[in-house]
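Input record (Table S2, row 260):
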Amino acid sequence: MLATQPWGQTPTTSITQHSPQWPTTANLSGQAFLPPGLLALHNDPGSNPISLWLDRGTLAWTDTANGPSCASCHEKVESLRQAVVTYPRWVQARLINLEDQIQNCRQRSGKAGPADGADNEEVLALSALLHQTAKGLAWNVTAPTIKPAEQAAWQSHLNQGAALFTQRMGRMNLSCQHCHDQNIGKQLRADVISPGHPTGFPVYRMSWQGLGTVERRLRACFSGVQAQMPPPGDPVLRDLELYLKVRASGMPLEGPSIRR
Ligand code: HEC
Ligand code: HEC
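Output record (heme C complex):
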């Protein structure tokens, strides 16, 4: 079934209305758009593949193989709970997200920054563990408060993220907004479009057979509209993550989640 075409041109992929109706509310996370089978998987720690990642993160937390462990400097994982909902942050003239912070700190543990960036499995496992620990906290990403110059820089990156969200891109010529504001609850290929909130990351996607960060998801959305994918770590991806997390202010952090 071909959908109505709200952007007034023939889409290369049809966005269709699903039956039964999915919700169309803007403040729901991707969790609300899961089929019952995946929800059941999510709620069963015995078969949820994320459990293995959390175990791995717990081991990495106390790993002293190459130097001091995370625990050597930070003691309990819970001590970093509040920090999780405040990334991306403006640090030394750039935006860093939680995975960037973990990378920086891994070097303090004597582990060299790997070439595979945020997709490094230990970084992912630690990110999953930290997000799990912060489950239920409200997202609270705010501007730096002390230096006006930093505040202005942060604001300009937020504005760039917001502008990108509405900018058409790729061969499909669609913006994030076309899907994640205007077509919530509609079917796109095997997926159902959610409001695009970053509240349930990292996600275990069945189609990846693995865990991925917000960054990986955003890159997949660029690819989905056949736009050129920014490379991992590209500042554009941090600007978008900043905008999405400010947009999700006050929503609960859901912890690592299952997705299609
Ligand atoms: C052609 C439609 C389309 C466009 C355009 C698009 N996305 Fe997506 N996006 C999807 C689909 C489909 C999914 C997977 C299902 C869902 O929405 O959670 C998704 C998932 C996401 C998620 C994860 C939501 C979750 O809970 O797992 C985020 C965040 C996101 N997109 C952000 C963006 C951003 C930012 C842009 C613009 C750079 C963008 N998307 C452009 C279709 C799109
Ligand atoms: C040698 C000590 C040391 C080790 C080891 C270390 N960190 Fe850190 N960490 C710090 C310091 C110092 C900061 C303060 C911010 C900065 O300088 O980056 C910090 C900040 C953080 C923050 C932000 C906390 C906040 O409240 O703002 C997170 C998250 C974090 N570290 C995670 C980790 C993880 C995960 C590991 C293990 C891979 C780790 N750290 C290992 C010293 C360490």
